[in-house]
Specification:
The protein is mainly α. It contains eleven helices and two strands, in the order αααααββαααααα. The longest helix is centred in the C-terminal third of the chain and has 33 residues. It is globular and about 50 Å long.
Length: about 250
């Protein structure tokens, strides 16, 4: 693939700043519950899925974005809006995969920036991003066992775990108490993600080969009679699929 073709593919996959703002606004809107993943958490969650041992189907991962229960499904204004929002999330997922495939060592997470009263420094804070990543791991924890048991896996995962795990020890809590500590751990995350992505690459390739998939980020086909992955509870053909067939 030529440099021009590579650049065009990246532009096609990656969300523009305006599209990122659109997705961010929806996640923060009254259409979602308090359990929804906001943009930095969503970015971490999607990164865990695309960098891990196996990619779940849209019907598995999209509902988890809205919250841990079916009651957290958003209230879309229309099927077109549902398709638009899920499409933006899927494109962002694919863009993360493309970025990791091209340059895993230079991965750029979507981190929050924090300012504290009486402190002029603006701190990088990957806490919510890491929380999303850990949710992604928890969705397929049994599949991640080989990384947990490898010699370097726990070391690579450590900054993500310290910032994002639901439960840590008292000693570990001391390592994330200050903004400076959280910033230092956040700076270690890109290298960790790159290592984890490469660790699972052979398994992902084997799974893709066995299933007949070719591109690593190829979107699975959705049956028109299955529940819509947007989480509405309706069949795909009566929800997001309706706009495509119309």
């Amino acid at each position: 693939m030529s440099k021009q073709e590579t650049s065009e593919t990246e532009v096609t996959l990656a969300l523009s700043e305006k599209e990122m703002d659109e997705l961010d606004s929806f996640l923060m809107s009254d259409a979602t519950t308090n359990e929804v993943m906001l943009l930095d958490c969503l970015d971490g969650f999607l990164t865990a899925l695309i960098s891990g041992p196996a990619m779940p189907t849209p019907g598995e991962w999209i509902p988890r974005v809205w919250g841990p229960t079916a009651a957290d499904a958003p209230t879309f204004a229309s099927g077109a809006q549902a398709e638009r929002i899920t499409g933006l999330m899927t494109r962002h997922l694919n863009a993360i995969g493309w970025s990791l495939h091209q340059e895993p060592e230079h991965f750029e997470p979507v981190f929050d920036m924090q300012v504290y009263e009486g402190d002029e420094h603006e701190y990088m804070d990957g806490e919510m991003w890491a929380h999303g990543y850990m949710i992604g791991i928890d969705m397929q924890r049994d599949s991640w066992k080989a990384l947990f048991e490898s010699s370097h896996g726990p070391v690579a995962l450590r900054p993500i775990y310290l910032l994002g795990a639901a439960e840590v020890t008292e000693a570990e809590e001391e390592l994330v108490k200050t903004p400076a500590q959280r910033e230092e751990l956040s700076k270690q995350i890109p290298a960790s993600v790159g290592w984890i992505y490469k660790f699972w690459a052979p398994q992902r390739r084997a799974a893709d080969s066995a299933s007949g998939k070719t591109p690593e980020n190829e979107n699975p086909k959705i049956s028109r009679n299955t529940p819509c992955p947007c989480g509405s509870g309706r069949k795909y053909k009566k929800c997001c699929g309706a706009t495509q067939s119309g």
